[in-house]
C-alpha cells in the first residue's frame, strides 16, 4: 500500500523509520548502512522530507541528527498510515481488544526502532487467555504477513522489568491503566 503510493523505496524506509516511533533519531551514515544504500540516495530523501517539514534536524558535532517532526499537522496521519502499512493497527484491534484484562501492550525490537524486519515483538501486561491469544496471533500473522512474537507479563513482573522498556526502545500501543515505562525512583 505505502510502497505503491510512495514510489521511492528509500523514502518508504525513512517514513517507517521515523513515523512509527517519534522518539527515533538517526544520522545519515547510520541510515545508509541500515538501508544498504548510498549516502547520496538517503541524503536526497532526507532533504526532501526536511524541506517539507516532516523531519527536524539538529547539529550534533559535525553531523546532523534527524527525527520526525511530531508538531507537523500531518504527523498523526503519517503515523497512522505507517501503522496500517505494517499491520499494527489490525494487531491491536484483533488481538488486544479481545484478550481479557490487558493493562499495557508494547511493540519492542526492530519495529519500535522503525525497522520492518518482518517480526513484530509484542509485550502484553495483564491477565489474558493464552489459548485465545495463540489463535488470534495465528490469524493475524496470516492477515498482515508478518511474524508476531509475544511476551506476556503480569503487572508485578512488568514493574520488576520495566527498566528494560524505555520510550526509545518501546512503543506503547495500548495502555488501559496508565502504566509508566519510567522506573519508579526509590528514595534513599
CATH superfamily of the largest domain: Beta Polymerase, domain 2
Q: Outline the low-pLDDT stretches.
A: 183-188
Biggest sheet layout: 4 strands, mixed
Count of helical regions: 8
Overall pLDDT metric: 82
Sum up the overall morphology in one term: elongated
User: Could you estimate the helical fraction of the residues in percent?
Assistant: 40-55%
Strand content: 25-35%
Going by CATH, the architecture of the largest domain would be 2-Layer Sandwich
Secondary-structure blueprint:
Layout: H1 2-5, H2 9-19, E1 25-27, H3 28-35, H4 39-51, E2 55-60, E3 63-68, H5 75-86, H6 88-94, E4 100-108, E5 119-128, H7 130-144, E6 147-153, H8 155-161, E7 170-175
Parallel strand pairs: 5-6
Antiparallel strand pairs: 1-3, 2-3, 4-5, 4-7
Question: What's the short version?
Answer:
By secondary structure, the chain is an alpha+beta fold. 41% of the residues lie in helices and 25% in strands.
Please provide a written account of the structure.
41% of the residues lie in helices and 25% in strands. The strands form two sheets. The chain has a four-stranded mixed β-sheet. It is an alpha+beta fold and 188 residues long. It has eight helices and seven strands. The protein folds into two domains: 2-68, Orthogonal Bundle (Arc Repressor Mutant, subunit A); 87-175, Beta Polymerase, domain 2 (2-Layer Sandwich), CATH 3.30.460.
